TrEMBL record:
It is a single-pass membrane protein. It is an enzyme of class 5 (isomerase). SUPFAM superfamilies: GST C-terminal domain-like (SSF47616), Thioredoxin-like (SSF52833). The keyword NAD does not apply. Belongs to the GST superfamily. It comes from Motacilla alba. This is Prostaglandin E synthase 2. It is found in: Endomembrane system. Pathway: Lipid metabolism; prostaglandin biosynthesis.
Amino acid sequence: QLPVGSLQLTLYQYKTCPFCSKVRAFLDYHGLPYEIVEVNPIMRKEIKFSSYRKVPILLANAGSPLQLNDSSVIISAIKTYLVSRRNSLEEIVSFYPPVKTVTEQGKEVLEYENKYWLMLDEKETKRVYPVKEVRVEEMKWRKWADDWLVHLISPNVYRTPKEALASFDYIVREGKFGTLEGLFAKYVGAVAMFFVSKRLKKRHQLRDDVREDLYEAVNKWVKAVGTNRLFMGGNQPNLADLAVYGVLRVMEGLEAFDDMMVHTNIQPWYQRMEEVIEK
Ligand SMILES: N[C@@H](CCC(=O)N[C@@H](CS)C(=O)NCC(=O)O)C(=O)O
């Protein structure tokens, strides 16, 4: 039913980046095959072809090659394509134009318009979102995952020097680094991120004990899912479930993740997510 066979996908990523993890969770859940190009975070040679300098980048070939930037744009565009089959992917992507905006800190950044909105006609909308509220809810929590949940990761995984070292050990192990580069990255990166994470903690006005904010956020999510459904999407995850899972998953194997499992009630939902995502 889906035009799966006609979509050739290549994901440029850092494996441990939450935005990239979100995209993988989405592609895996939808059973879309893709190639991965792990990007070296120091030289970033692999994405030299692109003027957009962040990951994830998805190259999609549905007839002609196309570059999709930004995790939420990638997810919304591909989901729209899977549901609608009406428009070319190129046309769909054109509905998510980049716009320059200025952050609160006065920094100029590129943002993508409509990035949580699926470009569906009335009939398709009815099929995906039987009532309006579920569409609004999904958008709200996808945005929350990007604007809030993601910011809790670094302060938590680099909380202490020991945790910062463990986090970098994991990043280097999973990522693409040369031997010397990796050794350098591990120690220099751990020290740097320990201090950077303190700055991030201030910027996002986190509490002194950053775990408190993580637990609160996670419990807020669990409460929003509620007890009457398996996922926010009902019997199957929606794009908000996939986003939250994708973000939290990057902490797997780290102290922050174990603490979260013990001190919040996320486990049953998290386990269900693991079960429905094949890879
Ligand atoms: N809004 C983007 C954020 C992507 C992002 O910040 N990626 C980081 C890696 S986790 C990156 O590539 N940073 C490099 C840079 O900012 O130069 C998305 O959702 O994909």
